[in-house]
Amino acid sequence: MYKEMVQRKKFPVVILLFITLITLICLSDILPKLSVGSINIKTVVTMFFNTLMIALCYIEFSKCKIKYKYSIVADQFIIHKIKGEETTILEDIKLKNIKYIGKYCNYSSDVHIASGKKYMCSTFFASKFCCVYKVEDKMKKFYFEPSEGFIKKIRILKEKSL
Q1: C-alpha dihedral over 118, 121, 127, 130, to 10 degrees?
Q2: How many other CB atoms sit within 10 Å of the CB of residue 88?
Q3: How many CB atoms lie within 10 A of CB 125?
């Protein structure tokens, strides 16, 4: 058994929200005091930016509560989503059904892929990996962010099972 857990880090989220806030403040200050009838456009835009910023903060900090656990048990690759106390199994794949696992930028194929999902916590997609696997007669794909050691472990176990 081998497992690893990933969680979204709050520092990049805070930096991203801070940059967004500064941008929205600058945009709001650039607008002149225009009025259409009795409605002040700057006031409406400022209220819109405030609502947008509150919504972004809520969305980003709610994403920080989600964790993904990648585990290998016997010949199964399992991905769990953990939100608070609730755990959900998202993927349960036999290692022999994996057709490709590695960096997403290195994968190219002409095969039609039925679905593509993301099981990641990163704000930025620098260390994104791709897994393509076969279920019945369909090919499926998902993106995730394990360590290099986890990928090596999957490759070693996959070769042993063949």
Answers
A1: -20
A2: 9
A3: 11
Q: What DSSP letter does each residue of 65-110 carry, written as one string?
A: TEEEEEEEETTEEEEEEEETTEEEEEEEEEGGGEEEEEEGGG----
pTM, two decimal places: 0.76
User: Which residue type does 133 have?
Assistant: Y
- Predicted local distance difference test score (pLDDT) of residue 99: 87
% of residues, the chain, pLDDT over 90:
25
Residue written as token pair 């979204």: 8
* Measured distance CA(152)–CA(14) in Å, rounded: 33
Query: In this structure, what token pair is assigned to residue 130?
Result: 């791709």
Q: What radius of gyration, in Å, describes the C-alpha atoms of the chain? A: 22
User: What confidence tens digit (pLDDT) does each residue in 122-153 have?
Assistant: 766 666 888 888 888 888 888 888 888 888 88
